[in-house]
Amino acid sequence: MPFQISAASLGALFFQFLNSFGFIVLATVGLAIIFGMMGVINLAHGEFILIGVYGTALPYHAGVPLPIAMLVGVFVTTVFGVIVERAIVRHFYDRLLDSMVATWGLSLVVAQLLLIVFGSSLDSISTPLGNVDYGPFSSSVYRSILLPIVAILVLVGLYALFTRTEFGVKARATIKDPETARAMGIDTDRMYVTTFAIGSALAGLTGALSAPSLGSITPNRGGTFLVEAFVAVVVGGPSVIIGTLSAAGILSVFNASGSFFVDTFFGQMLMLVVAILALRLLPGGITGFIESWRQRRGAE
Amino acid sequence: MLAAVGTGLSISVAGCSGGGDGGSSSPTVGILEDRSGNFQLNGTSKWQATRLAIEEINEAGGILGEEIEIVDPDPQSDNQRYQELTERLILQDQVDALWAGYSSATREAIRPIINENDQLYFYTTQYEGGVCDSTIFPVGATARQQLGIVTPYLAEQYGENIYIIAADYNFGQLSGDWVNVLAQENGYNIVGEEYIPLSETDFSSVINRIQQEDPDFIMSMLVGANHENFYDQRATNDLDIPIGTSTAMAQGFEHKRYDPPALTDVYCGVSYMEELGDLREGEDLVADFYDRWPDANYLNQEAQNNYFSVYLWRDAVEEAGTFDQEAVIEVLEQGRDVSAPSGDLTLDGATHHMEHEMRVARADESHEISFNGQRRIGPSFLREEVEGGEGCNLPEEDQTTQYVPSDVYDV
């Protein structure tokens, strides 16, 4: 049943786009940091987010106010990330395929542990903040306004962190050329832990923010985030922040308009078809393409 | 024997499929219900209820004086694992009866193995209906029974414009067809229809589309943890259009897991929910269930089907005087009355389906459940409608078919 085009229905399309955009950016950003900066494909990314969800939902159900429960969720995930980095991931730097197997195994362990310890489900948390309505339509304030704004703030914050601070310069130097960085007196080991901790904290933030918009909280929900996150990382290409932003923008335009003009299934399909085309035409992702275009122009 | 199991070459052991022959091994039942993975929320309760029934029977002296053994590995919501385990339980453990599977996709994945080995199999989930298969007893309520009670009830209460949303796989598509059949029979209007991939969690465009069409009520056959999000998003958007369903509440107890008012005015066509208690004289399944499983979440509709069908099997074995599967099926095919927690039910021998006591369960704004419009509904689609009205008659003719609404109706 297609929409009739009107000011109100175009408003609905815009809010659907924002909803999809916020979700994709938040699902992707932690994964993009860890992959883009460290060359580790974290297949347990969904479970990292899930730890953020559980870390938020458990204190919330124990009576802690939601915003504070969310901070707990972020904190728990960050600590978990540091432990995982020290115990497992640091042995797998520059071993791309091995890191995938190790983190995939980790994802199974985490999901099963959550099942054993906390049972088959936690009670859900209702989405806060109500809705805005316009004409016959309405959209969730939390999903279509708050989450996209937080997503943009996260990207801006990361940009400032990695380009405007000493830590950012050191971290990028470590990634680019660890030997030289060490020779310059940078504690590269600490840079790796810190970067991984930032990636984990972002996954935790995604989990914390998703806890009230996820619906059911069960140990297998990690998979919910994985498809969009991986698609956006590969479409975005090597530059973490611009890549995430541009990939999320393009994918959610197609997802939202496919859902709007045809139906939800078509929206999902269209998004994945666009991802395939993008990878066929731009094998380095969007930012890889921009980079090589700039180099070619510089050479001329 | 072991080699045959490993390679799946069942020719040499096909003769054993009667099960329990030779008297060397004790009678065994297989339980394959999901305790992890995507369907664990629904499957765990089914597993618990099946175990409870068998343990009760064993405590009361077993069947034909023999104690029943249980084999119950966790299939982890994985259809490939289901196929491997089904083969193992039939060939290696030689189970005398099998309870297995939550989703219709699972049932269809193992049905060829069941057919190949003529295994007595109880499928207990509510489902789209139409399975007419010689050794399979689908004892859950079918779409025709569930939707058949809830759709007319809502049309009478709220009006005749219906919007259908359903999961995009065999169960959801066929359930949507059944709502269309009911609309044709009763003159309702379908104002919108959408089938949604199981992986989808974002319902904003679905909700906007429903708002545009403004139906009198929604028929929702959404399935699984991802789709549940619809109910929360409906509440966030103040979408107070009533919902009829065959999938919410009675299986995944959403009314307990979500804060009110998310499930307000959701009406589910059910044969059983925990809130119904136990209608048998002097029995209390709910209390027994939580005594045995203090950490259990919910006694769902499916679990009750598992429970009474174990007793149905016991009675049939005792009447047959043997665990031999062919003999037990022959007894079951004579039809039987069953006293179940959900009421006095009847197994229809010809179709292997149940005559259920169906009711409309409604959640109010504080998620209290009330039951209305109770009616006894039989498996009329298989009994009276398929094959040009001849119906499915398994004692007369061996079959391994699944009929679908479009075999009979123009949908």
Could you describe the 3D structure shown?
- The complex is a heterodimer of chains A (300) and B (411).
- With 300 residues, chain A is mainly α.
- Chain A has a domain at 14-222.
- Chain A is built from 12 helices and 2 strands, in the order ααααββαααααααα.
- In chain A, helix 1 packs antiparallel against helix 10, helix 2 (45-61) packs across helix 8 (188-210) and helix 2 (45-61) packs across helix 9.
- The model of chain A has no long low-confidence stretch (mean pLDDT 89).
- In chain B, strand 13 and strand 14 (353-363) form a beta hairpin.
- Chain B starts with a helix and ends in a 9-residue tail after the last strand.
- Chain B has 13 helices and 16 strands.
- Helices cover 38% and strands 20% of the residues of chain B.
- Chain B folds into 2 domains: 2-140 and 277-357 and 377-402, Rossmann fold (3-Layer(aba) Sandwich), CATH 3.40.50.2300; 144-275, 3-Layer(aba) Sandwich (Rossmann fold), CATH 3.40.50.2300.
- Mean pLDDT of chain B is 90; it is low at 1-24.
- The relative contact order of chain B is 0.14.
- In chain B, the strands form 3 sheets. In chain B, strands 7, 8, 9, 10, 11, 12, 13, 14 and 15 form a 9-stranded mixed β-sheet that branches.
- With 411 residues, chain B is of the alpha/beta class.
- Chain B has helices at residues 2-7, 40-59, 79-91, 104-117, 143-158, 170-186, 204-213, 224-236, 254-257, 285-292, 301-320, 325-332, 380-385, and strands at 28-32, 69-71, 97-100, 121-123, 131-133, 136-138, 161-167, 189-196, 217-221, 243-245, 266-270, 336-340, 343-348, 353-363, 369-377, 400-402.
- The interface between A and B is large, with 49 and 52 residues.
What's the SSE blueprint?
The complex is a heterodimer of chains A (300) and B (411).
Chain A: H1 7-38, H2 45-61, H3 66-87, H4 96-118, E1 131-134, E2 137-140, H5 141-164, H6 166-176, H7 178-183, H8 188-210, H9 223-236, H10 240-261, H11 264-281, H12 285-299
Antiparallel strand pairs in A: 1-2
Helix pairs in contact in A: 1-5, 1-8, 1-9, 1-10, 2-3, 2-4, 2-8, 2-9, 3-8, 5-6, 6-8, 9-10, 9-11, 9-12, 10-11
Chain B: H1 2-7, E1 28-32, H2 40-59, E2 69-71, H3 79-91, E3 97-100, H4 104-117, E4 121-123, E5 131-133, E6 136-138, H5 143-158, E7 161-167, H6 170-186, E8 189-196, H7 204-213, E9 217-221, H8 224-236, E10 243-245, H9 254-257, E11 266-270, H10 285-292, H11 301-320, H12 325-332, E12 336-340, E13 343-348, E14 353-363, E15 369-377, H13 380-385, E16 400-402
